[in-house]
């Protein structure tokens, strides 16, 4: 009895004695919990640890809702927690986190920033210092059912018409168009696309708030009318994020959907009812506006509180290397941040659109304001957009309130550097 217990104890200790597993520094990395993407990350981390047996990587599940993820990070970083070591940042957060002193400046690692799309690098530079490396780019797209429509709509009017015409209630296609309308960051990106489509902007080139312009009122009214007047978008969108809209479209209940590239790969699989029956197009525009694509995406940064920044950099460099990026595009359909990869024929086969076209779209995508108070401005806007969409306020009043709040926030915080990214429209 005794002997076998001792043998069992020895066995238990064996891995520790052999690999010294307990002594290895641990790098914590928050990641998506969504299917293929989560699996891909695990696979890449396995490869990394084979190359770097001295480092242990711990993947932490985090919410996919951008606003929730932001809150989680802010709590941890405010508490000066050394965990996580690596932060997966939304494209709009870097200036805020950098200005708060939460990110490690990356200049010391000598990354070649010229290898990435310029707007994605500019979003990660604050005060002339690089704070994060672009990981994948998101661009907003209009998904449409090729078996229900002959062509994607090119004008706003045609969008409503197509949404109406494409519905087939007898076949459970009861929704004309679905989008992210919950009160969170996603709503701002959807609004940005309608806004540009009607010829409006959030901030003018000189940084003044112009989100209460007549074009903006038109854009927001158009979104509201889809729900309450023309009955082409279901009221449910007012609580929906990316995944709820994807489920609705993937289950075959919607004619069109606004979403990011990640949905393309997931909806092409076996459990999708629309596999082989959908395509993507740019969002349409009204006369006076331009088809507008919101620029999104993820960046990797190192926490200023990390106790193993060199190891964290090794992992960050590995995850953003061409090989891993290409694999991410193939497996998860997410667009690389390195323009050179768009010349790779492998990309053409897996992306939602031809690689060359994807590159053009990324280069012309519309960025959200690059400022440390972005989250504050966005929250003000989210509240008012949502009030108008649920019918608690008229679009003009809601946008006027939003614009006043945003102007006040800019005054109070003294943040003047609200220049829009060069090259972005
Ligand atoms: C995606 C985009 C991100 C955006 C978010 C909104 O994650 O990459 O930039 O803020 O969606 O929901």
Quick structural summary:
The protein has helices at residues 2-19, 35-51, 66-78, 94-99, 118-122, 156-166, 185-197, 214-228, 242-250, 262-267, 309-319, 322-332, 345-350, 355-364, 374-390, 395-413; strands spanning 26-31, 56-61, 86-90, 125-126, 129-130, 132-139, 141-145, 175-178, 254-259, 278-281, 295-302, 335-336. By secondary structure, it is an alpha+beta fold. 48% of the residues are buried.
Describe this structure in words.
The protein has 425 residues and is α+β, with helices and mostly antiparallel strands. The chain has helices at 2-19, 35-51, 66-78, 94-99, 118-122, 156-166, 185-197, 214-228, 242-250, 262-267, 309-319, 322-332, 345-350, 355-364, 374-390, 395-413; strands spanning 26-31, 56-61, 86-90, 125-126, 129-130, 132-139, 141-145, 175-178, 254-259, 278-281, 295-302, 335-336. A four-stranded antiparallel beta sheet has the order 3-11-6-12. A four-stranded mixed beta sheet has the order 8-9-7-10, sandwiched between helices. It has a two-stranded parallel sheet with strand order 1-2. Helix 2 links the parallel strand 1 (26-31) and strand 2. Helix 7 packs across helix 8 (214-228) and helix 7 crosses helix 15. The protein starts with a helix and ends in a 12-residue tail after the last helix. The relative contact order is 0.16. Residues 66, 90-91, 138, 185-186, 189, 260, 296-297 line the site of alpha-D-glucopyranose (GLC).
